[in-house]
UniProtKB/TrEMBL annotation:
The keyword tRNA processing applies. Substrate binds at residues 147, 179. This is tRNA (guanine-N(7)-)-methyltransferase. Pathway: tRNA modification; N(7)-methylguanine-tRNA biosynthesis.
């Protein structure tokens, strides 16, 4: 890809459609009422978004999940870590609506209000956050964009790994996963070329078995049921 093509790609969207089937009336109401209070509003270009400013209560640290799907993994982590602030990114509205409904039910029941949501391009959020502000990052089962002409859309790439390395301080963690063989090779190639991350793997079990503290997701279970083999990559920021 030429410099001109790379620059053009950086300005284009990397996600697909936003809307699916029509929501039920109850979900539509919850979505309309709750998303505005959970939504991450990006600052003007060149300005910094401080994660602490998104939450009413101080948080121990901040974690980001890019492409949370229907939010099952993100919500489970937030339930288990009520003192952590979570920033989730997902443009597909049906998935966002499912997560918003879970959050609304939990907060209404007196649970933690520790998730905020961006429904735009994840790269815009990563670029706006300050250095060293994110303790953990997650990109799990992203769209593989299998056609060669679409591979510039893949969210795991040199640029985003450099952004993660800027955001995650030494000692922090980045987790990636995919069930697509071509994307597995793609991820590994980029992981091994990322100088500020160490891949925590010594045997095949380290990437073929989901760690105990890594919540399962609906997509992952569907992939396994369909006979596909997920690969789980745990990276340590050095």
């Amino acid at each position: 890809m030429s410099d001109e093509e790379s620059a053009a790609a950086s300005r284009r969207l990397i996600f697909g459609r936003r809307r699916g089937r029509k929501f039920s009336p109850a979900r539509e109401t919850t979505f309309a009422d709750w998303l505005p209070r959970l939504r991450i509003v990006l600052p003007p270009e060149g300005r910094v978004l401080t994660p602490a400013a998104l939450f009413a209560q101080p948080m121990r640290e901040y974690w980001v999940e890019v492409g949370f799907g229907d939010g099952q993994h993100l919500f489970a982590l937030a339930e288990a870590n009520p003192d952590v602030g979570f920033l989730g990114v997902e443009p597909y509205e049906p998935g966002v609506a499912k997560l918003v409904s879970r959050i609304a039910a939990r907060v209404n029941a007196g649970g933690a209000d520790n998730i905020r949501i961006l429904t735009d391009d994840a790269r815009l959020l990563l670029k706006s956050l300050p250095d060293g502000s994110i303790a953990r990052g997650f990109t799990l089962f992203p769209d593989p964009w299998p056609k060669k002409r679409h591979q510039w859309r893949r969210i795991v790439n040199t640029e985003t790994l450099e952004q993660w390395a800027r955001l995650i301080p030494p000692g922090g963690a980045l987790r990636l996963a995919t069930d697509v063989p071509d994307y597995q090779r793609w991820m590994l190639r980029h992981i091994l070329a990322a100088p500020r991350f160490d891949w925590l793997a010594e045997t095949s079990a380290d990437w073929l078995r989901r760690p105990a503290d890594w919540p399962a997701s609906k997509y992952e279970q569907k992939a396994i049921s369909a006979g596909r083999t997920p690969h789980y990559y745990r990276l340590h920021r050095v």
